[in-house]
Amino acid sequence: GHADSDKGGKPVGTRVKLPRGAADPIRVYINGHEQKPGLDYNIVNGEIVFKEPIIKEDLSELSAFRKVVFGLGLVGTYQRDETIDIEYSLKGKRELASDLEVIPDS
């Protein structure tokens, strides 16, 4: 699987909403790596549901000074920060939705 939080970061959720009108063929990528339908995710009720949680950077425990340093781009956090991209068909054309928002698990 893709989620390996020992490299830092925080599990934020397992679901991403499909773009309106998205049709097959649908390809799902995490950080540029294609995911396998049925193995890594399923599509349920207009959402992509991943088998493992998506990991995002967790800056909540950093000091204000370090947040400013990171914000200025002087250094990185080296935490996992997974980005979800989807390639899909819409009205016969290929489309790409990038860095989709992860729906928090409740």
> Which assembly state applies to the chains in this document?
single chain
Anisotropy-based shape: globular
Residue windows where pLDDT falls under 50 for at least 5 positions:
none
Assess the beta-strand content as a share of residues. 35-45%
Q: Taking Cα atoms only, what radius of gyration do you get, to the nearest Å?
A: 16 Å
Order of helices and strands: EEEEEHEEE
Number of strands: 8
- Percentage of residues in helical conformation: under 10%
Can you summarize this structure?
Helix content is 8%, strand content 43%.
Lay out the secondary structure.
Layout: E1 10-17, E2 23-30, E3 33-34, E4 41-44, E5 47-56, H1 64-71, E6 84-90, E7 93-97, E8 102-103
Antiparallel strand pairs: 1-5, 1-8, 2-3, 2-6, 4-5, 6-7
Task: Please tell me about this protein's structure.
With 106 residues, the protein is mostly beta strands. It is 8% helix and 43% strand. The protein is built from one helix and eight strands. The chain has a four-stranded antiparallel sheet with strand order 4-5-1-8, with no helix packed on it. Strand 4 and strand 5 form a beta hairpin. The chain is globular, with a radius of gyration of 16 Å. The two termini are 22 Å apart.
